[in-house]
Request: fold
Amino acid sequence: MAGAAGFEPAVPGLGGQCIIQAMLHARLPQSLPLKKSSEEKRPFGPPIVRCHEAPWAARSHMEGTLSPLPTPYREESGFGAKNERALSRMIARRDAGRRFWTWLSSIRTTSEIRLTLPAIATVSCAVLLVGWEHSSIEVSIGLFTIISILYVPTNMASWFSSMVARDRLSLTVEGHKSKGSYPGSERIISTLRDRVIRERLRLISAILGAASLYVVLRLNPGTVLAPSLMASGAFFGTVCILNSLRLEGSMPMRSNDFTLLSLHAPTLHDSILKSVLTDSLKAHLDPETSDLWDEWMDSLEFSVRTGQTPRTAVEHVLQSIHWEQRGIIDRNRLISEVKTVFKIAATDSLFDSSNKFNASSLSKLLAHTRAWEPGLFRLLDRLHDSVAGPQGEDFEKWRLDLDLPPRCSEGQGELFVMLHNHTGEAKTVELDIIVAKGEPAFQSLRLSAPTTPHPSMSSGDQVDKISKLVTMLERAVVLWIGIAWPDSESGPHPVQVTLKGESGETLSSMVVQTSLTTGVNPESAAVRMTEASEAVRRIAIPLSDRQI
Reply:
């Protein structure tokens, strides 16, 4: 074929190269110097490039200063940055929509109205079925119409909340990493998804209830179909009531500081709390706040004083905030305690309300943790009473204290144990936990108990008592142990905790009683989640708003 008329010498892939080069060189302003005869005959227009000269022509063209091919993914291109900025703006609009619809849904008395009107509408449909002479179908239609209008803001709030939660936990924009692997992420998303379904269900039920009664009013379906439509209206009203009882108990994502905190339930935690308040608070943080907490802790590396670490400094601050909330110390003592572990600049930053984690936000997080785990804070209160009370010359060498909720729902409970060693030297002890008919029924833990000076061994004023209280808490062995029973168990069940020495002798033993219930009680997870959310909102005067 090379010698045939109309064909150039064969080059592999030459046909595709010719087509591509013809498109690339269609707009060249000057010609490539190929042959002298071609330059003389074609002074204007695009140059003629033969197929066997295409590779060299393409190389010459690509080495020019301007390339006709788009390169949107090169480093200096703004293509990716523009997309990220657009996505960030979309996320900001979603969050603004969430704040607006959540505020509109949370206006005072609207929750009570959304609970009351479906009951009234259902009763009115039942009265229509009975045929009471004073009943009015127009009133029933109006009630269902008002209910439908009231359900629109809650539907929009749940929809925007679900999108915002997915954005915060799943998307990676402008350096933010996905938090889908954090414990509790899937639970938060699924909870909001279920809420969206329930919101839509009760809105559709209210619309169908109004539509069924409207058919009876306008179309006159007859004596056979009309009662069925009225009964369907009562049924749809009942559906609205049942869903409202589940939805109106709490409105998620109402806080702008810690948006997802009210939706998180602790799933993973250490059995031994080395830093009592820090570890317990961290276990109750949602994935987004937990990630920010880790970043904040890393940033404190050069902000603490000599001899302190970020972990010990934050633990000391949390203890001081807790004592200040309980009225044990005043505001000035709180600031003094903070300055003992943080440098001046870090102390000012801790009381700056513009920072994510400051004295006010830490106070809210402590209130949230206290609502979730009241047993742990009951141990702290009893520790304070033992230190602040009168001290005798004779004291026990071992102090064992524990707390278990008086009622445990859903076959599970949280056991907190606090141990102090007053023997004067570090000991290795064994702690046996016996749960009657529990799963498991027996647990044995081998612990190292550091020595702790007894409060009666030194004397001093109130300030010294606070210092001794801090020392007692720092050297305590605190356990957070989850215990469980089979679903078939109910009624009172004892739990025994026995402290044994290295040779197996019994040093101390305590027995607590709890009652297993199946219904909702103040210690159930759902109630504690609601109380934890409300505890954050009940702090009327944040610490950052007070005078330092």
Observations:
- The first strand starts at residue 272 and ends at 273.
- The chain has a mean pLDDT of 80.
